[in-house]
Write a structure and sequence with these properties.
With 227 residues, the protein is mainly alpha-helical. 78% of the residues lie in helices and 0% in strands. The chain contains nine helices and no strands.
Length: 227
């Protein structure tokens, strides 16, 4: 059954690789399908934000199918522990700075620390449950979609490092808009740049996941502590 699905996809991708223009068109369609379309739907149906993990999981199914069809390796996608320490060390300082900045904003400017969607969810989930779901579901899904899959896909149309970093970070930043906090969106854009650069240098997704999980978990902790 799996081969029946994969073979037609391989055939399509093989024919789609005839020109760079065609590759760009295919990637544009993927970007719309995986990122732009969900944002557009959320614009008119904001309550869907509470089912974002299911949306990302459905996107993950597509990602795995395409990654298999394109013969993406685990090393190319950063799905390996090789180089974990070397990748994690450069992330310690920016991660620590954002943690400190978040604590400062929460203490001094609590009005800037309001996340409507997350506040609503906090009424139904305990803090430990929210952190558990974030670490085990949200972070892995986000990292596979935005780093492990999307950056290698971008590399198929360009080797411009600046474009790879800034464009992937821009998409990562934009998908956080529905959470309803401008400061978080901007911080996400900054960390998106740092994580994309780290990914291109080391190809160690687990290291980025650690940084991502620390930041998000601390954010959830502050949110529950304040409200």
């Amino acid at each position: 059954m799996r081969e029946r699905i994969v073979k037609p996809v391989k055939a399509y991708l093989k024919s789609a690789s005839i020109s760079v223009v065609t590759k760009r068109s295919g990637l544009t369609m993927e970007t719309i399908l995986l990122f732009v379309l969900p944002l557009a739907i959320l614009r008119y149906f904001p309550q869907i934000i509470h089912f974002r993990h299911l949306v990302m999981a459905s996107g993950l199914a597509y990602v795995l199918l395409i990654a298999r069809a394109l013969h993406m390796t685990r090393e190319e996608m950063g799905l390996t522990t090789q180089g974990f320490t070397a990748a994690l060390l450069p992330l310690l300082i920016p991660t620590s700075l954002v943690l400190i900045f978040s604590a400062y904003i929460a203490a001094r400017h609590p009005a800037e620390f309001i996340f409507p969607a997350m506040l609503e969810e906090s009424r139904h989930l305990s803090m430990s449950t929210a952190i558990f779901l974030y670490v085990t579901l949200s972070v892995p899904l986000q990292e596979v979609l935005f780093r492990a899959f999307y950056i290698p896909r971008l590399e198929q149309i360009t080797d411009n490092r600046l474009f790879l970093i800034t464009f992937s970070a821009l998409i990562f930043m934009l998908v956080h808009i529905p959470l309803g906090n401008l400061l978080m969106v901007l911080t996400t854009g900054l960390m998106g740049i740092i994580w994309a650069d780290n990914f291109l240098r080391f190809r160690s997704l687990p290291a980025i996941m650690v940084s991502h999980a620390l930041l998000g978990s601390f954010l959830i902790y502050l949110l529950y502590a304040m409200f």
